[in-house]
């Protein structure tokens, strides 16, 4: 696991050192550089595999030099293939498998990799820079062209260390952030800086560049018996977990007590020669606390379990720490407990397995259940139904029925499927003209256009599969995996997601919808497989999410920070947001007339980011 950075165009050792050392949190154990008359490459390393032999940059005998961030879980298989054609290895690292794999297969290598990665390869013979990113974007990779320089890095902060790079807010990206809580690939918050899309590689030579896709998520419904589907799912989840347990450093499992993390803990325990270490955190607010369920699973599986209960103050104290490192605005408040869990876990281990990906692939979110009732909502006149829903008393608890109904009513004005995805958004597009000043609303395209494109890309599949495709391409890639990567790497912890093993992903994507959801039961097949293997009730627990009591905090402990960041005079001077509209959001929330937690935290997160990175 590393942080990588580099650029083409008049290399300067001091510049690449500044870029690379801005990523020290991603790799505290080592650093390395490759600089010639045309390219500069740098890396910071967190030692995981082949602690002494896996140094980077790694240079081959045929003119290729590699730096990379991530882990390749099938590197031993690739190594065996390459050895059969006479290639000799000097180390036991996955980096060398990438190096020789590129020398043998060229860019076709990337489709052979099962792992999480952001790779940069300088090919001396062709004077070409090749960049590549894993299938779901588990590892980040930003790039941009400024004058004669092409610059890239694991995080925006690395690019910002290059003297040619400018910090200019991209207005369309700002609107996208306000809607989604993040900026979706390929955009970034800054003009002229982009994210390399997942499952693609970029070939850069002189002033030209092109992007090639090497994989895409294909949703098909293949005929398979229930018995065969059960057996294959069990086998593939187990294989995915064991493949991600490769490490020359201590490893553990994040355990929430939900279906996904408990499944991973089960298979990790089954395939480990010693007790698996599991880690969980809890909160004083019982509406958000899951620690007792994690404890139940740990006792049942016999893991070496460690937990910590955090106070509200503990969680709020992380806010300045997180926003001093988050170099792109990000408003998923669950980054706060994710950071606490990573920080706590890092005391004990260097690698942790998590359950990311299962909900998107199986359609496990409560919105998939809610969509079953949309036909009922549409039976009655919209104005009457919305009027009745608006009279429901506001609750500040986690994932309430009332909150879901109000989100349905709010999104009903949008086209089919987009209306469903809008439930997890913050400011819906029709609110942007009220929120933003005219300087930031002129000539901007519909922020929901990206959703419409992904729905088209999904092809002729069921609406259920279109929604899982949409969640995988948007929420998983740019929210969940971004959160996991940034929160864990802030404390130099590597998080791994077994559910994103390519073999498992392609199998789940081929299952009939009836095996993913039956009636109101989400993740139906996974629950059926795991029910006899886990404590009673765990497989069928209601999804809780990794949330925080943000709604309450905004009327209590976080209120002073909110009022300072969103003070009308300040908003007027800065010129982004309409202070009267923002004041109304605050007043509604304080009076408990509306639960505006997502909207207000979205604005606060932007202000915290802007103060650090745009000032």
From TrEMBL:
Gene Ontology MF term list = asparagine synthase (glutamine-hydrolyzing) activity; ATP binding
One Pfam family per UniProt: GATase_7
Q: What is its EC number?
A: 6.3.5.4
- Give the UniProt keywords, A-Z: Amino-acid biosynthesis, Asparagine biosynthesis, ATP-binding, Glutamine amidotransferase, Nucleotide-binding
Q: Which residues form the Glutamine amidotransferase type-2 domain?
A: 2-207
Read off the SUPFAM superfamilies from this record.
Adenine nucleotide alpha hydrolases-like (SSF52402), N-terminal nucleophile aminohydrolases (Ntn hydrolases) (SSF56235)
Q: Where does L-glutamine bind?
A: 94
Q: Which GO terms describe its biological process?
A: asparagine biosynthetic process
The reaction(s) catalysed by this protein are:
L-aspartate + L-glutamine + ATP + H2O = L-asparagine + L-glutamate + AMP + diphosphate + H(+)
The entry's ATP-binding residues are: 281
Q: What class of enzyme is it?
A: ligase
Pathway assigned in UniProt: Amino-acid biosynthesis; L-asparagine biosynthesis; L-asparagine from L-aspartate (L-Gln route): step 1/1
Catalytic residues, chain numbering: 2 (for gatase activity)
Record-annotated site: Important for beta-aspartyl-AMP intermediate formation: 356
What GO cellular component entries does it have?
A: cytosol
Family stated for the protein in its record: Belongs to the asparagine synthetase family.
Q: What's the protein called, per UniProt?
A: asparagine synthase (glutamine-hydrolyzing)
Q: Which organism is it from?
A: Candidatus Doudnabacteria bacterium RIFCSPHIGHO2_01_FULL_50_11
Q: What is the lineage of its organism?
A: Bacteria, Candidatus Doudnaibacteriota
